[in-house]
Amino acid sequence: MILPPGVTQDDFARALREFAAVVGQDWVFSSDSDVALYDDSFSPFSAEPELQRHASAAVAPDTVEQVQSIVRIANRYKIPLYAISTGRNLGYGGSAPVYSGSVVVDLKRMNRILEVNAVEGYMVVEPGVSFLDLRRYLDEHNLPFMCSTPEPGWGSPIGNALDHGCSNVVGDNFGMVNGIEVVLPNGEVLRTGMGAVPTSKLWHNYRYGFGPVIDGMFSQSNLGIVTKAGFWLVRWPEVQQSFAANSARHDDWHPMVEAIQRMREQGLIFMSGCGSPIRQCMSTNNGHIAEGIPEVNRLLARRDGGSPAEWEKLGAEHNMPVSSVFGTVRGPDIVVKSVLAHAHDVFGKIPGVTVHEAPAYRFPLNVADLDENRKSGLGFPQLWAFSQPAVQGTSFGHYYFSPMFKATAADVLAVNDTMRHVMIDAGDLDMLYHFGFSGGIGFYPRAYMILLEVLIRDDAALNRKRRELFVRLAQTCGANGWAEYRAPPAFQDTVMAQYSFNDHVLRRFHETVKDALDPNGIIAPGKSGIWPKNLRKT
Amino acid sequence: MPSITTGRWLAPAAALVALAVLGLGVAAPVAAADASDVAAGHELFNKWCYGCHAPSIKHSPDASLLGSVVAGTYTLQQRYQGSRPAALEERTDLTPAFIDAVVRHGRNLMPRTRKTEISDAELAEISAYLTRARP
Questions:
Q1: CA distance A6 to chain B (A)
Q2: Smallest Cβ distance to B57: which of A42, A90, A372?
Q3: How much is the CA Rg of chain B, to the nearest whole Å?
């Protein structure tokens, strides 16, 4: 058995008995085999068990009051807690704690969909609800809403949003959160925004309430345990349709990205992004299947990454665009048609650019007719995404390097160059070829991200090399202003270190708040690189 | 595409021993389970397992996806190379001990499943469904 650091065996046994008195003996897990179920199934240390982070026990409350009692007991014995919702944040830690020896507070039993307001378009859920649960509920109750699911559907709307997860339905899932209930480190329950007005009926309609807005302080945070949240929902549109604009010329990419982002800025499309199909065609990142054009890898392995003329020549030879952008629109048929007509108009002004319309999806959809890989973007959670690493032969899953940068062609090219150079300098051509080239993913309206998938192998030395590469990527991109939006626990200190303006005042601010609200440092020590006073390295 | 043959168990020693005894976890099916357990297990299978262990895609407007398979089925297809059905519901050689070990300890990309997700009693029902007597 692992003990929480600094806690005696007797005290831990007493605490477990007290947890059991709160939730029932069946919902306290302390045997080695039960606690092992909380290990990270996609740990970057999977082939080095001695380096893995482990829980000391797990406790599974069913009510907010039970969460409060658990927090109070943990304070008494100074036991670190680590809350999970569905525990399926695979690639970002899963159900394992950031700080080894923590007791996992498993909120899976708190799986109630408390309200779906079909008129006002919001829902209130508990953390243990999964996207798949939500879809089932919406279908069973004939509620015409999309489910803003990330690709794997077994995650939790609350857990995903709090970790700044994204979906192809709304992009920024935390942006849809309206009203949070949280158990604070001292066991008190706090409701944000209008939820603080006891008689308010607007908790999930108006976000700000009065005074400083603090919802964000509970995302990627260790200042409390969120026990319910309201989300705005996306109502089924009449039609959803995507389109792409392509060009054989490198230089067109700049005005094309500017144009697609202008449409996004104007609210005409809800999703956008850009790519360079010829540069990307040999990538195996995120399950892509390589096209078999070795010249692509030869150019990408060169420090200059190939000249525009070389890419244009290669693109022409293989009939693949050099520059591409895409957008997605949803709404009434007439609106979708008008936006598409506008897109033809806008991109038609750039000579040589062609616009291609994807199939129009008319709601309600028959889910049985949908391609698996299109379901999540249409509001249907599934687990298709796991086919991607499956085809790549990994035994232990994957994790992501994911920097944020400007939604401009210049920044996409610059980030790619920087990441390629780090891989070339590290002599890791396998990783370079796996990555290839990435366009910009526009989950957020005015910024792009790259998702570089790092596959975890049976080979400990290779995994170690990849972790070192990850750190170099994070530091090099950070030095260029492109820090990450999210990271697995093993790299959260590294990522937070990139947010270093004014001698790391942001992290010091978080530490000050942490110490004030959680003097015993019991809630998720180390989450997002924020450590309580007793565990901070000087 | 690469085949998935290098995966290894993440299970503790006891489970490995159990699997070794069972010879890679396959054996003759157990006696017919209670019909209500089988029905409950079918429902639980659809909720928890089908997303990764469905048979190949038979309906898709995108012809290129026809016949493609979801993660679990794909992995088993690669592992068995036709010697056993890749879709779990078509298997007749699974045993409760094998199912228990895989669900609790994960295998390859399949993560561990906690008891707050599938309780021991529910896991027994899933086993009852997957090991049910076939005509």
A1: 27
A2: A372
A3: 15
| Pairwise CB contact (< 8 Å): B115 & A384 | no
Average pLDDT of each block of 10 consecutive residues along chain A (538 residues)? 96 98 98 97 94 97 98 98 96 96 98 98 98 94 96 93 96 97 98 98 97 98 98 98 98 98 98 98 90 97 98 98 98 98 98 97 88 87 77 80 98 98 98 97 97 94 98 98 98 98 98 98 98 91
Q: Identify whether the C-beta of residue A52 lies closer than 8 Å to the C-beta of residue A40.
A: yes
Question: Exposed, middle or buried, B61 (CB in 10 Å: 0-12/13-18/19+)?
Answer: exposed
What would the two tokens of residue A53 be? 């982070």
A281: exposed, middle or buried (Cβ count in 10 Å: 0-12, 13-18, 19+) = buried
Tally of CA atoms within 13 A in the half-sphere of A237 that contains its CB: 21
| Separation in Å, CA A310 to CA A295, A300, A314, B116 | 10, 11, 6, 56
Interface mutation vs chain B, best among A147, A395, A434, most B CBs within 10 Å: A395
Query: Quick check: A60 contacting B, CB < 8 Å?
Result: yes
Give the C-alpha separation, B6 to A392, whole Å.
11
Cβ contact A339:A260 at 8 Å = no
Chain B environment of A368 (Cβ under 8 Å):
59
What is d(CA A506, CA A393) in angstroms, rounded to the nearest whole number? 40
ipTM of the predicted assembly exceeds 0.90: yes
Residue type, A50: E
> Which pLDDT value is given to residue B109?
84
**Given phi > 0 = left and psi -120 to 50 = alpha, else beta, which region is A84?**
beta
Hey, are the CB atoms on A386 and B109 less than 8 Å from each other? yes
Helices (H), A349-399: 372-375, 387-391
A505 touches chain B (CB under 8 A): no
Q: What is the CA radius of gyration of chain A?
A: 24
Distance CA A58, CA A18 (A): 13
- DSSP run (H or E) holding A13: helix A9-23
**Nearby residues of A24 by Cβ (< 8 Å), 6 or more positions away:** none
| For residue A277, cis peptide bond before it (omega within 30 degrees of 0) | no
* Angle of helix B120-130 versus helix B35-48 axis, rounded to 10: 100
Q: Using an 8 Å Cβ cutoff, are A96 and A38 in contact?
A: yes
User: Contact A216/A294 with Cβ under 8 angstroms?
Assistant: no
B60, B105, B117, B123: best mutation site toward chain A, by most A Cβ within 10 Å? B117
Q: Residue B59 and residue A42: Cβ atoms within 8 Å?
A: no
Active-site positions of A? 92, 485-486
Q: Closest CB to B112: pick one of A29, A39, A391.
A: A39
A residues 356-375 near B, CB within 8 Å? 359, 368-373
DSSP 8-state symbol, A296: H
Count of CB atoms situated within 10 Å of the CB of A249 = 18
A99 exposure class (CB count in 10 Å sphere: 0-12, 13-18, 19+): buried
Helix (H, G, I), strand (E, B) or coil at A264: helix
Residue in B103, B113, B44 with CA at minimum distance from that of residue A86: B113
Q: What is the DSSP string of A57-110?
A: EEE--SSHHHHHHHHHHHHHHT--EEEESSS--TTTTTTS-SSTTPEEEEGGG-
d(CA A18, CA A9): 14
The residues pairing with A122 across neighbouring beta strands, listed in sequence order, are A117, A232
Nearest chain B CA: its distance from A265 CA (Å): 32
